[in-house]
Amino acid sequence: MKKNLLALLLFFLACTSFAQEIKGNNTDSVKNIDKSIKKNEIKLNLLNSILGFPEINYERILTEESSVGLSVAFSLGERANIFLDNYKFMAVPYYRMFFGKNTSGFFIEGNAAVVTSDIYLSKTTYNSNTGIYTYERIVNNETNIGLGAAVGLKFITKSNYIGEILGGAGRFFGDAYHKVYPRIGVSLGKRF
Considering the chain, what is the average pLDDT of its residues? Predict the structure, then answer.
């Protein structure tokens, strides 16, 4: 577990360090962000909220073409739904590269995830003396770490309101019960 957490931390640090602005003689080749553009965003993933797994995103704009962010989601009930595989908590740091102006338009995303989920298993026992079957429900809590990718579109109004569509997936490391995690969303938010 400690090795997985260390790998996740190193991945996130690598993403943020590569996204930093280059300083020195060749700063003309780097597209610096306009000082008048706001650099922070808060978004709510409406699709996951409808599915019973609300997700809140914070994104920090680094340049006109890149940003980093953190997505945090949690379950509202005992079982989320079939799409989210009984996830209880999910934290997803990500790095995005944009192909539009002012960090909007089409983007690609690299992400890492820490996911806690409940695994529901059942055990059936037969007693030959009484001829009765006994069913037992077993709940195991599991935490996994993985890497993934996504693509999406971000739209921004003149008033700095944001609409975003996102789709992708990731794969967990090691011997996890769930092999993949979804990265889906239809989000609304505000840039400030």
Answer: 82
CA 76 to chain centre: 17
CB 42 within 8 A of CB 189: yes
Contacts of 67 (CB under 8 A, 6+ apart): 19, 41, 59, 60, 61, 95, 96, 98, 103
Sign of torsion, CA 13 14 16 21?
A: positive
Distances (CA, A) of 140 to 61, 119, 172: 39, 5, 17
Cα(114)–Cα(116) distance, rounded to whole angstroms? Answer: 7
Q: List, for residues 5-48, the tens digit of each pLDDT value.
A: 445 555 555 555 544 444 444 444 445 555 667 899 999 999 99
Dihedral pair phi/psi, residue 3, rounded to 5°: -65, -40
Cα(44)–Cα(78) distance, integer angstroms: 21
What is the reported pTM?
A: 0.74
32-46, 75-89, 104-118: which range is least confident on average? 75-89
